[in-house]
Amino acid sequence: MGMPDGAQKPEEQRLGPVIRRREQVQPGTTDQRLLDTEGDSEWVHTDPWRVMRIQSEFVEGFGALAELPSAISVFGSARTPVDSAEYEAGIRIGGALVEAGFAVITGGGPGAMEAANRGAREARGVSVGLGIELPFEQGLNQHVDIGVNFRYFFVRKTMFVKYAQGFVVLPGGLGTLDELFEALTLVQTRKVTRFPIVLFGTAYWGGLVEWLRDTVVAQGKASERDLLLFHVTDDVEEAVALVTKETGN
User: What pLDDT score does 221 carry?
Assistant: First the structure.
């Protein structure tokens, strides 16, 4: 859209903070170009636009979670069967955390995550799910009261740490291990302080702990004190007590 019929081209044009004069005057206005243009849509896939999306995810996450009470993030496998002992333990952990004064944050999916959310909801606490866009859509489980879906894993992981005072980690797969070692690294490098990490299930985590001690530490890739960054237990009450003790809740 250009100038109206019969109108003369102005000598000076103000476009927001920009002034254009003489031959640099452009036809129309910024609003006209925004509303009338039907160009290609490739720009939505450019890196500058992705930066804006990433920023918007941080803003939405911060806004949704800023007023949470003290919270604990609970991780575990999406494949944990509903009729398993691990699922039952997740329910008990979620409920016990609420009774200790915490909100419960999970990845919002099925399995162990659903169990912890269920325990929190049934205990009348705050049940939070932070979902992620995946090729195989799972959606948030029905026990989530506050849910936020993310496109980017790194934004989601920031929320897990920023709004939690500690982690309880149930048996899980690669995603659970990713979140566990992210937390261990943050504590080891003192990016976060007073951040308890509890691994629930000695039989499941025993092999990993042995490998860290007998291979990683033994070969000098980590120090002996790094093994003190986490606790391992089979007892729900002990898991909650360890979190409560270290957070001062």
Answer: 97
